Amino acid sequence: MWFKNLQIYRLPQNWNIDAETIESQLAGRRFHPCGSQDQETRGWVSPTGDDVLLHRVGGHWLIALGFEQRLLPASVVKQEAEERAEEIAAQQGYKPGRKQMKELREQIMQEFLPRAFTRRRKVFAWIDPVGGWLGIDAPSQARAEDVLEMLRQTLDNLPLALVRTERSPASAMADWLAAGEAPAGFSIDQDCELRSVTEEKAAVRYVRHTLEGDEVRGHLEAGKMPTRLALTFEDRVSFVLTEKMEIKRLDFLDVVKEKVDESGAEDARALFDAGFALMTGELRELLPAVIEALGGELKVAEPLAQAA
Questions:
Q1: What single-letter DSSP state applies at residue 211?
Q2: 283 and 177, same structural domain?
Q3: How many Å apart are CA 6 and CA 245, to the nearest integer?
Q4: Which structural domain range is residue 298 located in?
Q5: Do 54 and 175 reside in the same domain of the chain?
Q6: pTM, 2 dp
Q7: Do the Cβ atoms of 68 and 141 come closer than 8 Å?
Q8: Coiled-coil intervals in this record (predicted)?
Q9: 1 falls within a domain
C-alpha cells in the first residue's frame, strides 16, 4: 500500500468522530455495480477486499471510493444514429429533425448500455484523525473532488479546510532554486518546471537535469516562477511539489520499503498493513516538514467550499 500522489486537506486535530460511526455511515453508501441503464455508479468499497469499509492500522484510517463506468463511446452512438436516420429519411422522404434525432440517440443509448463493457477503478484516501490530515491518492484536485463530494454526502460531520502556509509554494521554490539549496531535511532533485506569469505563459521544463548554475537563475530573473520541483526528504521519500500544494510522483525509497521485509509479515494482509503503517508514518513526518519549509501553517485555515 503505497500512494503515488497526495492531495492534502486539513481536519481538526483529534477530530471528534469515532471509527465505528464513520464505518456505519460509509455503509449507507456502499458501492453497487452499474444497473442496465446506469452510465456510472460510485460508492465505498473495502480497501482490503473484504467487507470492512474503514481499515485501521496504528491510529490511521484508510478508505476507498469505487467507480464503475459503462464504456459507450459517443462516436458509436453517433454512427448508429446516422445510419438509422438515413433509413428513416428513405422511409418518410425527409431527414429527421433535431427532436427526432435526440429521441433516436436516447433510444440507442438505452439499447446499447446493457451490452457495453464496464470499467472499475478505486481511489484511496488516508485519514489521520490525530494529526488532522486527509490525503487522497489522486493526480489532480479534480479527481480528489470526487472523493470529497462523496464524503460530504456520506458523513454527518466533515470539517475540512484547505492547507494554507505563510509562503506560497511557488515563492519558496523560487528562493530555493535561486540559492541552489533546499531547506533543512530536503534536497533538490533534477526535475523542475518554470512558467512565465505573463499572458504568453512561456514554460521551461527540466527532466533529469541539474538545476544548479546560471541557466535556471536566468529564467527566475526573467520572471518565470516554479510550478513544480522535485525534492527528496531525509533520503527517504522523493516527490514533486507543485504550486498548488500538491504532492505528485510520491516515491518511498528503498530504505523505507525494505522495512516491510524486516517486519516479518508473510501473508498478503500482513504485508498490506506493514506497508500502510510505514507509509503513514513517513507522511506524518513529511507533511509537517513541508509546511515548516513554507514558513509554517496559517493559524486560520481556509474552509473548504461545500458542494452545491
A1: -
A2: yes
A3: 9
A4: 169-303
A5: no
A6: 0.86
A7: no
A8: none
A9: no
